[in-house]
Structures are given as C-alpha cells and as structure tokens.
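Journal club prep, notes for RB
We'll compare a predicted complex against what the paper describes. Inputs for the cytidine-5'-monophosphate case:
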Amino acid sequence: MTANAYAKINIFLDILGKLDNGYHSLFMVMQSVSLRDKITVIKRDDGKILIECDTPGVPCNEKNTAYKAAKYFFEEAKIKGGVTISIEKNIPHEAGLAGGSADAAAVLKILNEIYETNFSDEKLCQIGLKVGSDVPFCIVGGTCLCQNTGGVISKLPPLKECFVVLAKPEKGVSTPQAYADADSAYIYHPDCLRMLDCCEKGDFEGICKYAGNVFEQVVEVPERVEIKKIMGENNCSLCQMSGSGPTVFGLFEKEEDANSAAEKIKNICKDVYVSKTIDKIF
Ligand code: C5P
C-alpha cells in the first residue's frame, strides 16, 4: 500500500517554557503543503522491518523515523509484523519541514489499514509522538493548532488556499541546538491569542500580520534576509522561517508571483520548491 507524506510549515511557533523532561512546551500553527514523499509498505513473513530509500544520505536502519514508527506500531498492536518500507524522498531533511515526521505518520496510517487494527487518529498520534514531535500533526494535517510538545492538536479552519515557495539554504540546522540557543536567549514572544483569534475567524490578513517564529531570533540563516527581500518584492503575503529552519517559506496568492520569486531565489539557494497549501492529507 502506498501513501503520500506531506511536508509542513509553521505559520506560528512560540516556545512557552521548558518542561522537566527537557522538552519544550510549544504553541504552533502548522499547515500542510503539497511537497511530499511517497511511502510504500509491503508485508513480509520474516518479522523484519526493512527500509529502502531512493536518496543517498538517508539512514536505512533503526534510526529512520519510518522504522521507529513501524516498531512502535507493532509493539502497541502486539503484532509480530514484518514490513519493507520504501521511501521516495522529495522533502529535504534537516530543513524544518517535518520530512522524517511525515514519513513516520504515513507508515502509521498504512499499517493501521493493512493490519486492520482500527486505531483512532488519537491513538496513532500517541504512538507517533514517541517517534517525533511533529508526527501527530502529520497524521492529522491541514491547518492545526499544536500545543504542549506537539501532541495536543486542534483542527483550525483551513488556511486560504495559496501557493507556497519553499527555499532551503544549504546548511542544515540541529533542532536540539536551536532549542538550547533559545533557552539561553531573551526572546520576544509573538501574540499567541491574537493569532488564534485570526485563525478561528479565517482572517487571512490577520494571520499574516500576527504570524511569527521565535527560532528566527536565535537560529542564524545568512540567506534569510535576501530570500525575504525577494519574496517581498514579488508580493508574498507572508514570509517566515519554518520550524527551527533553515527553510524559509513564502505564501503567495498568485501562482505567477510564486514562480517569479522562486526563479530569483534559485540564485541564492538551489533547493527551491513551489507548492500549495493543502487541507486533506490521507
Ligand atoms: O521530536 P523531535 O525529533 O522533533 O525533536 C528533536 C529535538 O528537539 C529533541 O530531541 C529536543 O531536544 C528538541 N525538542 C524540544 N521540545 C520540543 C520538541 C523538540 O526540546 N517540543
């Protein structure tokens, strides 16, 4: 069975505080976008979990989020299952786009189907959270408010359909380091409640006005200023870093503006994608 694994962007990301377990309590508005990996899962009889990937550099072992998702699923379902998981990668990794989490979410969805376990999305989210903080969102998808460490999810009205330019500078960002840097900085916090109010009302202008990502204050991405300048010159409605970076996204109402921005940004970084917001992911 095959499923798409969609990338996400953070329209809003605030760190509210550090928890006793070292993780951080977050307030995030996340959005699915059409850039996607393709995940194929085939049952096998020998009880092994094997990973295949078409992109070099992706670990095809127990470190892969898809492997972890299958392992935790079988443990939870008390099934002695075996699978071959093939990953067709399009979402860049270490990019702030939840590429690994999207793959894990798709694996959980597929396993729930092919083993007829009938787990609710809530249950799949609990399993997914063991794999990574963004996995629960990647199970639900669309436009969501995600809180605590990522496992408390509320669906929001779908964001206005727009084109999304994703520009990924070359140098990856270490997420644990980004959190550590945030811990040791004095951070200006964006207005969570105003943002939520705009989301609930479907006020796109307000959403763009109150959007924010605190990681922009602590994660240095040298290309960010120039990318934002070009997106702005091409009529983007919002331009911001996603997650802990380094990807910078722009929302555009018109396709020709998105394409024109993307073409110009290719002079700064080579990984540039034009995608769209999406609401239904599975
Ligand atoms: O769960 P995920 O793989 O996205 O997390 C990567 C790292 O980011 C964690 O090991 C942790 O250091 C940090 N993190 C955090 N608080 C969160 C999410 C992630 O401190 N809510």
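Talking point for the session: The first strand starts at residue 2 and ends at 18.
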